[in-house]
């Protein structure tokens, strides 16, 4: 499977997620600069990486969400291409309106950078098929704005439709209903604050994130 | 033409930043600060004749995230 990683000025996890994708697919992803208006032909999955796109100016992800390449990402998602947004990538996807809700400043105002335990809330998705429902995994988080907010109706709908993919086991950032990652209605866009790409090999301390990329490959191939 | 755009959190959306400011004011000995909400002020200079609808689109498409924020435009 060919994949693409979107790169904005200020992205800093683009290479990490490229390594994780290459490990799973055996092919080096195309790195796509934010000014591009099209994705390369034949891209089977798109990753929007973590970082501090545009210095988090205005709101985290706000400026990146309006960059030319995001129109191409939205078109690909419309056609069913899986899109994975991690950390700043999750913020970009909510700002672009591809995922509901918003990511606000952490409740305790501090930047949280540590390993956190997550529960796989739904293992029946394009991204989580290699996990068991209810399984606990550990991914690192590193964010200032990970406090997921949506109105109660939206939260009820997300939960009712199985669109919460990952939850924090213990509070991390004040996130509504401990939400760490959510899916769009169609199930082909996942946004999550924790970093699966930083846990894909033993040298990372653990490789719990690896199955996310392998599962995605299996789902698309 | 100068514009001032006030972007504020919607009522009901928790404001950790406002809460921290409130707490800090309390630490400085200012009693009776019942609530603090922090927002943004964006000052712009736009072409004369820019119509309200265009300014409204600027606010909705970029300047405010209407999931969590309200906005108000003031013409100087």
UniProtKB/TrEMBL annotation, chain A:
**Which cellular component, as a GO term, is one annotated location?**
cytoplasm
**GO terms, molecular function:** ATP binding; glutaminase activity; phosphoribosylformylglycinamidine synthase activity
Q: Which SMART domains match?
A: GATase_5
Entry EC number(s): 6.3.5.3, 3.5.1.2
Write down the superkingdom of origin.
Answer: Bacteria
Q: Name one GO biological process term.
A: 'de novo' IMP biosynthetic process
List the InterPro entries hit by this protein, alphabetically: Class_I_gatase-like, PRibForGlyAmidine_synth_PurQ
- Known catalytic reactions: L-glutamine + H2O = L-glutamate + NH4(+); N(2)-formyl-N(1)-(5-phospho-beta-D-ribosyl)glycinamide + L-glutamine + ATP + H2O = 2-formamido-N(1)-(5-O-phospho-beta-D-ribosyl)acetamidine + L-glutamate + ADP + phosphate + H(+)
State the UniProt keywords alphabetically. Answer: ATP-binding, Cytoplasm, Glutamine amidotransferase, Hydrolase, Ligase, Nucleotide-binding, Purine biosynthesis
Q: Which SUPFAM superfamilies match?
A: Class I glutamine amidotransferase-like
**Statement: the UniProt record of this protein carries the keyword Acetylation:** no
- PROSITE patterns this protein is in? GATASE_TYPE_1
The catalytic site is made up of: 87 (nucleophile), 195, 197
Q: Where does this polypeptide localize?
A: Cytoplasm
Q: In which pathway does it act?
A: Purine metabolism; IMP biosynthesis via de novo pathway; 5-amino-1-(5-phospho-D-ribosyl)imidazole from N(2)-formyl-N(1)-(5-phospho-D-ribosyl)glycinamide: step 1/2
Where does the UniProt entry say this protein principally localizes? cytoplasm
| Subunit comment | Part of the FGAM synthase complex composed of 1 PurL, 1 PurQ and 2 PurS subunits.
Q: Which PANTHER family match?
A: PHOSPHORIBOSYLFORMYLGLYCINAMIDINE SYNTHASE SUBUNIT PURQ (PTHR47552:SF1)
Described function: Part of the phosphoribosylformylglycinamidine synthase complex involved in the purines biosynthetic pathway. Catalyzes the ATP-dependent conversion of formylglycinamide ribonucleotide (FGAR) and glutamine to yield formylglycinamidine ribonucleotide (FGAM) and glutamate. The FGAM synthase complex is composed of three subunits. PurQ produces an ammonia molecule by converting glutamine to glutamate. PurL transfers the ammonia molecule to FGAR to form FGAM in an ATP-dependent manner.
Q: What is this protein called?
A: Phosphoribosylformylglycinamidine synthase subunit PurQ
From TrEMBL, chain B:
Q: Name one Pfam family in it.
A: PurS
Catalysed reaction equations from the record: N(2)-formyl-N(1)-(5-phospho-beta-D-ribosyl)glycinamide + L-glutamine + ATP + H2O = 2-formamido-N(1)-(5-O-phospho-beta-D-ribosyl)acetamidine + L-glutamate + ADP + phosphate + H(+)
Q: Which UniProt keywords apply?
A: ATP-binding, Cytoplasm, Ligase, Nucleotide-binding, Purine biosynthesis
The keyword Heme appears for this protein: no
Question: What are the EC numbers?
Answer: 6.3.5.3
One of its GO biological process terms is: 'de novo' IMP biosynthetic process
Name the pathway. Answer: Purine metabolism; IMP biosynthesis via de novo pathway; 5-amino-1-(5-phospho-D-ribosyl)imidazole from N(2)-formyl-N(1)-(5-phospho-D-ribosyl)glycinamide: step 1/2
Report the top EC class in one word.
ligase
A single GO cellular-component term from the record reads: cytoplasm
Q: Where is the signal peptide?
A: none
One of the record's GO molecular function terms = phosphoribosylformylglycinamidine synthase activity
Identify the domain of life: Bacteria
Name where it's found.
Cytoplasm
Q: Give the multimer and partner information.
A: Part of the FGAM synthase complex composed of 1 PurL, 1 PurQ and 2 PurS subunits.
Q: Name the job this protein performs.
A: Part of the phosphoribosylformylglycinamidine synthase complex involved in the purines biosynthetic pathway. Catalyzes the ATP-dependent conversion of formylglycinamide ribonucleotide (FGAR) and glutamine to yield formylglycinamidine ribonucleotide (FGAM) and glutamate. The FGAM synthase complex is composed of three subunits. PurQ produces an ammonia molecule by converting glutamine to glutamate. PurL transfers the ammonia molecule to FGAR to form FGAM in an ATP-dependent manner.
What is the similarity comment for this entry? Belongs to the PurS family.
HAMAP family associated with the record: PurS (MF_01926)
Q: What is this protein called?
A: Phosphoribosylformylglycinamidine synthase subunit PurS
Organism this protein belongs to: Sphingomonas lenta
Q: Which gene encodes it?
A: purS
């Amino acid at each position: 499977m060919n994949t693409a990683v979107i790169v904005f000025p200020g992205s800093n996890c683009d290479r990490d997620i490229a390594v994780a994708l290459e490990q799973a697919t055996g092919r080096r992803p195309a790195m796509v600069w934010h000014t591009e208006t099209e994705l390369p032909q034949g891209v089977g999955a798109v990753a929007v990486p973590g970082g501090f796109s545009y210095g988090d100016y205005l709101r985290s992800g706000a400026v990146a969400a309006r960059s030319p390449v995001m129109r191409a990402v939205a078109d690909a998602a419309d056609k069913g291409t899986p899109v994975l947004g991690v950390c700043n990538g999750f913020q970009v996807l909510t700002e672009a309106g591809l995922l509901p809700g918003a990511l606000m400043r952490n409740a305790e105002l501090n930047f949280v950078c540590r390993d956190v335990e997550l529960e796989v809330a739904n293992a029946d998705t394009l991204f989580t098929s290699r996990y068991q429902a209810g399984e606990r995994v550990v991914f690192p988080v590193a964010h200032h704005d990970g406090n997921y907010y949506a109105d109660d109706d939206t939260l009820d709908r997300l939960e009712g439709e199985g669109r919460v993919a990952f939850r924090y086991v213990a509070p991390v950032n004040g996130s509504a209903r401990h939400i760490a990652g959510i899916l769009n209605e169609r199930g082909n866009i996942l946004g999550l604050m924790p970093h699966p790409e930083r846990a894909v090999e033993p040298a990372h301390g653990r490789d719990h994130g690896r199955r996310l990329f392998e599962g995605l490959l299996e789902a698309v191939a | 033409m100068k514009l001032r755009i006030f972007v504020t959190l919607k009522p009901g959306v928790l404001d950790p930043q406002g809460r921290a400011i409130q707490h800090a004011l309390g630490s400085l000995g200012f009693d009776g600060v019942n609530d603090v909400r922090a927002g943004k002020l964006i000052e712009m200079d736009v072409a004369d004749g820019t119509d309200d609808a265009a300014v409204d689109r600027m606010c909705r498409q970029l300047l405010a995230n209407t999931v969590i924020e309200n906005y108000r435009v003031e013409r100087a």
